[in-house]
UniProtKB/TrEMBL annotation:
Sorted UniProt keywords: Cobalt, Lyase, Metal-binding, NAD, Nucleotide-binding, Zinc
GO biological processes: aromatic amino acid family biosynthetic process; chorismate biosynthetic process
Protein name stated in the entry: 3-dehydroquinate synthase
Documented EC number(s): 4.2.3.4
Length: 351
């Protein structure tokens, strides 16, 4: 399957990924090779990965899985481990895991010794089609998503769809939400295909989503304009995710589950403010609720979620900026929302 080329690196899939990894390491004079895993990828993915790699791994680094561990204290542990294990500026860090691990591993590599090389090997659908692509790295600040980080590109991203067999269906579905988003913001036909598709984990769908995200990132690598469209559903979705993570009385949501709700809500705002048709709005809602359980929002929950919007990374000059849809496949950025529309959006979601 053809690789996806970015400006400074490539995303390789299946057999090409294995060949690219071994070729890159054989021609690079790395002083030490570190592999970062969590308890899940150590048990389920590491044995597979070791058979793919010709060169020896010098040291294995391990962190605990889960968004609740994506914080600076975990980074401190990893920086200390790299230092204790004689890591230097010619070291390589390979990140074998989901979005939490590749985000954090990329950040640790980008800041250790002012930057060492890293390679992302995503093991969840979410990280394959989104988190490991585009160079965004970082950690959360408390329960606030991705507040600390840098944009820095990996040497390569290697996608092995066979790792998806190690996941439970809920984790896989979380990545499906991001794939649907790619269709909503850039490609109506892709949205139609995915929305009707029974199997969204085949390599061709993964490659299509990677290609859509890569195209956007190539045009706007530092998120000054177009790249903001990748945040559709994420302004409210991240606030929902943070609120549920920080509230012991609420079920913790996976990223895709939260942004699925966010895309329905922001779809409603698109209908009110940018002319998205009611037919398309209902199509979006029906599509997501076919695959994702509705989230129960009480009035107090909604107020708390709206308070979290002030921490969104796209904000500027005190304004909360939204990405909305003019139609399916066509997104616009930097839209201000009248406050009364938020409550109408939640009311539409709950209908």
């Amino acid at each position: 399957m053809e690789s996806v080329k970015s400006k400074s690196y490539e995303v390789h899939i299946n057999e090409l990924a294995q060949a690219a990894l071994n070729q890159h390491i054989s021609k690079s004079d790395y002083s030490r090779i570190f592999l970062l895993v969590d308890e899940n990828t150590k048990a389920h993915c590491l044995p597979i990965f070791k058979k793919m790699m010709d060169a020896p791994i010098d040291s294995l680094l391990e962190i605990k899985s889960g968004e609740e561990n994506k914080h600076i204290h975990t980074c401190l542990q990893l920086w200390q481990d790299l230092s204790n294990l004689d890591g230097d500026r010619k070291s390589l860090l390979i990140n074998l895991g989901g979005g939490v691990l590749t985000d954090m591993g990329g950040f640790v590599a980008s800041t250790f010794k002012r930057g060492i090389d890293f390679i992302n090997i995503p093991t969840t659908l979410l990280s394959m089609v989104d988190a490991s692509i585009g160079g965004k790295t970082g950690v959360d600040l408390g329960s606030l998503k991705n507040q600390i980080g840098v944009i820095n590109q990996p040497q390569m991203v290697l996608v092995f769809p066979e790792f998806l067999a190690t996941l439970d269906p809920r984790q896989t579905k979380s990545g499906y939400a991001e794939m649907l988003k790619h269709g909503l913001i850039q490609d109506r036909e892709y949205w139609n295909d995915l929305n009707q598709k029974g199997d969204f984990t085949d390599a061709s769908c993964i490659q299509k989503s990677i290609a859509i995200k890569n195209k956007v990132v190539l045009e706007d690598p530092t998120e000054q304009g177009l790249r903001k469209i990748l945040n559709f559903g994420h302004t409210l979705g991240h606030a929902i995710e943070s609120y549920c993570l920080d509230n012991p009385n609420k079920k913790t949501l996976l990223h895709g589950e939260a942004i699925a709700a966010g895309m329905i809500l922001e779809g409603y705002l698109s209908h009110e403010l940018r002319g998205l048709s009611k037919l398309s709005l209902d199509e979006i809602k029906k599509g997501f609720l076919r695959h994702f359980d509705p989230v129960d929002f009480a009035p107090d929950d909604i107020e708390s979620i709206l308070q979290l919007l002030k921490y969104d990374k796209k904000n500027s000059h005190g304004n909360v900026n939204f990405v909305l849809l003019q139609e399916i496949g066509n997104a616009v950025t930097d839209i201000k929302i009248p406050e009364e529309l938020f409550h109408k959006a939640f009311a539409y979601y709950r209908e």
